[in-house]
Specification:
The structure is a single chain. With about 280 residues, this protein is an alpha/beta fold. The structure holds adenosine-5'-triphosphate and magnesium ion. Adenosine-5'-triphosphate binds next to helix 3.
Length: about 280
């Protein structure tokens, strides 16, 4: 029987992701740096085809989404090519990876989008420009490093009490559910003795606290107790630790599905399954 393959391509602000989907299953995944939209999309597509020996005739449709999607006007390589709206793509991909309907998604990419997704409607609740791009942008100036890996290596050896003003610095007792180790003010202490390691940890902590609190308010407004974290930022282990602290305080849990960085590309591809 002839295989029917759909390709989903997500041209994000920083990275481009491509996936192939067959029979509702994700088969191949490719990630490249986002250059201009056409180079990124064709590059990611080409890499997937060549590395996996895919025959062009097997591909029924390409679906493109993400910040750069509007730059592509025509079919790619003669294959019917459509556009998927990004919020819908995140919602569909998030539900697919979480394996259930009716979820709140925090998509942590260059920035952060919070989405309420169920099978009958996908709603963009809001978001924040605070995301992975914030960590990397501030790290460039404050720490003189430009790779995410370098920020993480520094942060792993950091001490938060060198940079953040903690509740314990200003109060002798706990304040409602805030313990003495909770942040009272991000970067509000910044001792002269603070090292790059401490600043790196302060950056990760600040960004994931913002993401966590946005997620908590979104979840509580929908009477749900969990949030599915997608995008590249889903796999950040120090970020997950910050979100764990938020779980302890606010009783909202965070889920990190496998392949979370491909959520948007997967959702774009799956959205084609409804197109005949
Ligand atoms: N381990 C990591 N933890 C958190 N963020 C990371 C990590 N590695 C890379 N990043 C950041 O992730 C961002 C890219 O993530 P992703 O590919 O999900 O975003 P995008 O789709 O390009 O952007 P957007 O969806 O906001 O348009 C970059 O800002 C990068 O600095
Ligand atoms: Mg994205």
């Amino acid at each position: 029987m002839k295989k029917i393959m759909i390709i989903g391509i997500d041209i994000g602000s920083t990275t481009t992701k491509a996936v192939s989907i067959e029979d509702g299953r994700v088969i191949h995944k490719v990630k490249t740096k986002a250059l201009d939209a056409v180079t990124s999309a064709t590059g990611a597509f080409g890499k997937m085809i060549v590395e996996n020996n895919i025959q062009i005739g097997e591909i029924r449709r390409i679906m493109i989404t993400g910040a750069g999607a509007t730059k592509l006007k025509d079919d790619l390589f003669g294959i019917p090519t459509g556009k998927a709206e990004e919020i819908n793509a995140i919602g569909i991909g998030g539900m697919f990876l979480a394996g259930r309907d009716n979820i709140i998604i925090a998509n942590v990419g260059t920035g952060t989008a919070i989405i309420d997704a169920s099978s009958d409607r996908i709603l963009h609740m809001g978001g924040s420009g605070v995301g992975g791009g914030t960590i990397l942008g501030l790290a460039k100036k404050l720490l003189a490093v430009s790779e995410f890996k370098s920020v993480m290596e520094l942060a792993e050896r950091g001490k938060l009490n060198q940079v953040d003003l903690l509740m314990g610095d200003i109060m002798e007792t706990d304040l409602s559910f805030l313990g003495r180790e909770s942040t009272a003010s991000n970067f509000g202490k910044m001792l002269d003795s603070a090292r790059n390691e401490d600043i790196a940890l302060g950056l990760i902590n600040m960004v994931y606290q913002v993401i966590g609190m946005l997620s908590v308010f979104a979840a509580k407004s929908k009477n749900t107790g969990s949030v599915v974290v997608t995008g590249n930022g889903s796999s950040n282990l120090l970020g997950r630790r910050v979100l764990e602290e938020i779980t302890a305080m606010y009783k909202v849990t965070f889920e990190y599905p496998e392949d979370a960085e491909y959520t948007t590309a997967i959702g774009a591809g799956l959205s084609a399954c409804t197109v005949k």
